Structure to design on (446 residues):
């Protein structure tokens, strides 16, 4: 714990991401500082959340989304003190929220000395700039927040290079839009003038060079892991997939006795880990990897290509679902969509409903920071959820894939899970490698 906070302090001493977006990092980069590691929130920072749902979105849904954003903010290290919601058909082009709402946010931020405002969507470079000018605090959008958490978590060389690539790809268009906008607005005035065209060009070139370098580096790392993966021919590969925080790493640890970091934070895992598992003398490789989330920036998916290869190359996917989560069905849909995006959707899949110990028919009331009743006049509470038995019946009937209900934490139904894995893995051996005798793969590898 002490180590973690020391690491944080160290890394916050680097230029912050907002400085980056403000353009300062552009200059730091131009001076050859290659360490792009930064964090959105230092400890004890307070954050205000802003969501602009469209008019049809139900209040309860909006709060669930804001819960997730608050969870992300807390994971990044900030304390959420307030949530602002404005229903609009379309976000305001200039400042994302309308003028009146902006005034409200501004007053709150000034009054409470909040250190940042986090938006549940991505902001255009000019929205970012305008909001910064109006609110005079750090402005963070959803992509930046997620990239930032990834940056805090990435451990392996590949994951770090992938995160850095995502950071620079985020930075590049903002470098441009930012300064051209600033120049236009200030008419090239003196006091707070940004760098001239030449400097911007230099910054852009530095960033592009770095992007090219990172892509090469990732290709190199990919070649190495490809060689590693080739050595695994003849061994069935199983990948744990699922929304973030559903219990993938916990299950990995149970099945493989590995020590994968699991905790109640989003994106505890951003590297992939592969372990040899032997069940009933049947060996296979099990990989635990980064969780998915709604509105995951495409750029981030792209830069995490090597990590996602572990999923793409698997013979069998184990889709873990947190059934106790109020939006678990939407989470299933998000995971399936993301699997489609990375072209891994048509693999055989087992659906594992986890956290049955925590499932209640009461709709969840757990809220993260800054919660306030949105519509106190709204008498109509959410409908009770189906029983676990009803859910089982529905899902068994609805899906062709095998379905199982477990609690990794309470070790409930784990034997059933193991048996299901053994059945499916041995079927895959027969189908995929009819001539190969199951071999013992090398000892576990990271
Ligand atoms: N109540 C309950 N909690 C669980 C269960 N399984 C895991 N958890 C908890 O859920 C949290 C997330 O677990 P992880 O294993 O880190 O989840 P993950 O899917 O690997 O998460 P990311 O790596 O962040 O995508 C941890 O606090 C676990 O202790 C379960 O069956 N019941
Ligand atoms: Mg994990």
């Amino acid at each position: 714990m002490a180590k973690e906070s020391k690491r944080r302090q160290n890394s916050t001493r680097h230029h912050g991401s907002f400085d980056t977006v403000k353009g300062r990092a552009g200059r730091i980069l131009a001076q050859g500082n290659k360490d792009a590691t930064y964090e959105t929130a230092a400890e004890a920072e307070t954050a205000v959340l802003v969501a602009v749902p469209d008019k049809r979105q139900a209040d309860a849904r909006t709060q669930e989304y804001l819960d997730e954003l608050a969870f992300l903010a807390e994971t990044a290290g900030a304390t959420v003190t307030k949530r602002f919601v404005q229903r609009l058909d379309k976000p305001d082009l200039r400042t994302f929220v309308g003028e009146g709402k902006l005034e409200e946010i501004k007053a709150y931020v000034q009054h409470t000395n909040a250190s940042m405002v986090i938006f549940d969507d991505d902001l255009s470079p000019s929205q970012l700039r305008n909001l910064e000018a109006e609110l005079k605090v750090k402005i963070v959008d959803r992509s930046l927040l997620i990239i930032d958490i990834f940056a805090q978590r990435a451990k392996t060389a590949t994951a770090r290079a992938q995160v850095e690539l995502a950071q620079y790809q985020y930075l590049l268009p903002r470098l441009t839009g930012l300064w051209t906008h600033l120049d236009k607005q200030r008419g090239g005035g003196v006091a707070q003038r940004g760098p001239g065209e030449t400097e911007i060009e230099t910054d852009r070139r530095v960033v592009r060079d770095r992007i090219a370098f990172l892509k090469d580096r990732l290709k190199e790392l990919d070649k190495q892991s490809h060689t590693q993966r080739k050595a695994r021919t003849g061994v069935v590969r199983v990948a744990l997939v699922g929304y973030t925080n559903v219990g993938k790493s916990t299950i990995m640890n149970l099945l493989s006795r590995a020590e994968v970091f699991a905790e109640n934070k989003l994106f505890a895992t951003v590297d992939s880990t592969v372990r040899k598992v032997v069940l009933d003398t049947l060996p296979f490789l099990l990989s635990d990897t980064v969780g998915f989330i709604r509105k995951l920036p495409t750029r981030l998916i792209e830069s995490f290509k090597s990590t996602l290869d572990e999923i793409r190359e698997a013979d069998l996917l184990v889709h873990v679902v947190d059934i106790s989560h109020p939006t678990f069905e939407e989470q299933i849909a998000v995971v399936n969509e993301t699997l489609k995006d990375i072209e891994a959707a048509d693999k055989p899949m087992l659906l594992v409903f986890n956290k049955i110990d925590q499932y209640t028919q009461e709709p969840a009331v757990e809220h993260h920071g800054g919660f306030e009743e949105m519509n106190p006049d709204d008498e109509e509470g959410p409908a009770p959820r189906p029983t676990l038995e009803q859910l089982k019946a529905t899902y068994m009937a609805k899906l062709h894939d095998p379905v199982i209900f477990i609690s990794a934490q309470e070790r409930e139904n784990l034997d059933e899970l193991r048996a299901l894995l053994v059945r499916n893995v041995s079927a895959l051996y027969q189908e995929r490698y009819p001539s190969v005798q199951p071999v013992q793969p090398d000892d576990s590898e990271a």
